Amino acid sequence: MDNPAWSRRGFLGLGVGVLGAAGLAACGDTSASPTKVQPKVPQELIDAAASMKGSSMGVLSQKLYSTAANEALDSSIATFAAATGTKIENSLVQADAGDVVAKIDAEVKGGVARDLAFMTDSRFVAQFQALGDLEDVTDVVKALTAKYGEPCAEAKNYCVFDGKWFAIPYHFIGIGSFLRKDWMRDKGITPKDGYSWEELRDLCLAISDPGKRRYGWGMTVNRSGDANGMIEALINSYGGAIASNDGRKVTFDSPETVQAVSFLGDIYTNPKFKPMLPPGVASWTDTSNNENWLAGILGYTRNQFSVYADSRTKKNPVHENTHVFSDCTGPATDTPLLLGQSQGFVVFKGAKNPGLAKLLAQYLVSAPALAGVAKEAPGLVMPAWQKVWDADPFFTSGDPAFPMLRKITELSLPLKTKNGLTFPQKASAGQQAVGGAYVLTDMMQQVVQGTAPAQAVQAAHAKMAQIFTQQGLPQ
C-alpha cells in the first residue's frame, strides 16, 4: 500500500555496492549544532546516555518524499547528538530499489551495518528477522508502552515474532485514496466515504475528459511500490491472497484472484476505458502518479500521504480539491481492508553502539521530535503511539484527514473477508520477498500484453512458491 512507504525516491547508493560508508551519501555530520529551534532532549535520556558521551553511531533512514521532512529528521538527530555529546551520522536509502534487503544483510554479516535503521514494517522486518539480522528490542517497546500507551495496531503483527519485538514502532505512514472533488462536482457527482472497485472505475471514466487533460485513472501496473500495493489490495478485496493466513503457504492461484486480475486487466485493455488512462501510464514508475496528481491531470490515485502532504505544504490548488477516502471494497469485503503501515526502528546484530541507538529511537518517537518531521509531511508521518497523538494539537486537528488516519492506527484487527481471509496475515518473509521481486506487477504486465488472466495467475503462483522456498518456507 503504497505499499508502499518511506518514500521510495532517489536511491542514493545505486550501483556502488553494498550500503556501506562508501555506498550511501550521508546527510551530513549531525553532531553539529541544529539549524532550527528543536525541543529539548528529555533529561532522563541524557542521563541514560552519560556513559556513551564521545561515542558515535550510524543511522539508516528510508527517504521521505519531502526534502524538508528529511531535513527536519536530520535536525532532530542533531539535537539529540548535541545534547548527549555523541556523534551520529544519518544516511538515506531508497527502499524500492529491489535489492535493499540483500545489501543490508551483506552489511550485517560483514560487520559494517549501521546501528539503527527505520524500515517499513510490513515490507521488510520479517525478512530481516528471518535472516537473523535483528536484535530483540522488547525492552524498549515495553518502556515506550508504559509511557505512551499502545502502539498502532498493525505493528503488533509485523514487528513481533514468537512474542518478542524486533522493531520499535516509529511513525505511522498514512495511506489513502484521493479523488478530484471539483471534477466530480462538474459532473454532478457527490463524493462518498467509500466505493467498490467497480464504482470507482466507472466514476473515473465519468470524470475523464482528455480534451481538458483530465484522466480519471491515475494508477499504473508497471513495476513500482504503488502498483504492487494497489494490485494486492484489489485481489484481497475479491477474496484472493498471496498466502494463507499463517503466511506460510502460497494460495495465490484461486478463482477469486483470477476474477480480480481479469477486472484490473480490463481497465488497461478495454477500449471503453482508454479515455481515463493518462498518456504513458504503462511505463510509470513510483514518482509518476505523484507528479501527475500534483500537475492536476489525474482524477484518482492511491498513494501514501506523501502526495497529499506535498500538495498541502506547497500550497498546490489540488489540495483544496482533494477528496480523501480510505480504500475500495470488493466482492469479498463489506469494509476496506486498509491497515496502513508504519516505520519501525531496528537495531542490527553486531551494532557497535546499540545502547545509544535505543535511546535515540525513544527520543525520535516522542511528540516534540516527531512533530517537526510531521509538519513537513502532513499525513505521511503520523504518531505510532496512542498518547503521542494527544501530545500535540497538530496531530489531532492539523488537517481534516488526520482523524481518519488515527482511526486506522487504532483498528480492531484482524479484518476479515467473507471467505475466511484475515488481515493482517502473519508476517512472512516469503510474502515480503514476493513484494520486493515485483511478481504482481510483472503478472499484470503479462495480462496487459495479452496473456489470459488465469494463465498469468498460475505463472505468478509458481514464481511465488519458488520465492517462499528460497525464504525457508518450502511449498
Automatic annotation (TrEMBL):
Keywords in alphabetical order: Signal, Transport
Signal is among the record's keywords: yes
One Pfam family here: SBP_bac_1
Keyword Phosphoprotein: no
InterPro entries per record: Bact_solute-bd_prot1 (IPR050490), SBP (IPR006059), TAT_signal (IPR006311)
Signal peptide residue numbers: none
Family in the record: Belongs to the bacterial solute-binding protein 1 family.
Record PANTHER family: ABC TRANSPORTER PERIPLASMIC-BINDING PROTEIN YCJN-RELATED (PTHR43649:SF34), ARABINOSE-BINDING PROTEIN-RELATED (PTHR43649)
Record-given protein name: ABC transporter substrate-binding protein
